[in-house]
């Protein structure tokens, strides 16, 4: 079983940057795919990036502004967000799945963090 702890959310003005971090622990943490999702007010949950090992795959809508970095030694997945806009406001969730992953479909992930709020003001 994997446990996830997110950190780094907060409030920022449009155009600013934030860094989110997700730390995984547990027996299978090293063999887990990790991902970031978000849910904005009134919108469905959407996947941002997933990573297994050193590979990272992004949703096209944010790929030019968001980057993920996996540290396999620390079992963390960092999400660096830049050029934030009001539309990026929402709750950001870290998720994990055992083994390699090939999708940003939320149903593929069995473990979820509690989420961290990101608020972007104009």
What order do the SSEs take from the amino end to the carboxyl end, as H and E? EEEEEEEEEEE
Number of helices: 0
* Strand elements, count: 11
What portion of residues belong to β-strands?
A: over 45%
Characterize the main sheet: 7 strands, mixed
Q: Helix- and strand-based class?
A: mainly beta
Percent helix range: under 10%
Low-confidence stretches: none
Distance between the termini: 40 Å
Set out the fold topology.
Blueprint lengths: L2 E5 L2 E4 L4 E8 L6 E8 L6 E7 L2 E4 L7 E6 L4 E6 L8 E9 L12 E2 L3 E6 L1
Parallel strand pairs: 2-11
Antiparallel strand pairs: 1-3, 3-8, 4-5, 4-9, 5-6, 7-8, 9-10, 9-11
Structure description:
The chain has 122 residues and is mainly beta. It has strands at residues 3-7, 10-13, 18-25, 32-39, 46-52, 55-58, 66-71, 76-81, 90-98, 111-112, 116-121. Strands 2, 4, 5, 6, 9, 10 and 11 form a seven-stranded mixed β-sheet that branches. The chain has a four-stranded antiparallel β-sheet with strand order 1-3-8-7, with no helix packed on it. A hairpin with a 4-residue loop joins β7 and β8.
């Amino acid at each position: 079983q994997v446990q996830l702890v997110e950190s780094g959310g907060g409030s920022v003005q449009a155009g600013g940057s934030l860094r989110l971090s997700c730390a995984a622990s547990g027996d299978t943490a090293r063999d887990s795919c990790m991902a970031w999702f978000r849910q904005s007010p009134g919108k469905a949950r959407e996947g941002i990036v997933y990573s297994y090992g050193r590979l990272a795959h992004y949703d096209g809508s944010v790929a030019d502004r968001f980057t993920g970095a996996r540290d396999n030694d620390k079992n963390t997945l960092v999400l660096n967000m830049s050029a934030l806009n009001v539309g990026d406001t929402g709750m950001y969730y870290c998720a994990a799945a055992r083994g390699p992953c090939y999708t940003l479909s939320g149903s593929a992930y069995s473990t979820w963090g509690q989420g961290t709020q990101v608020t972007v003001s104009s």
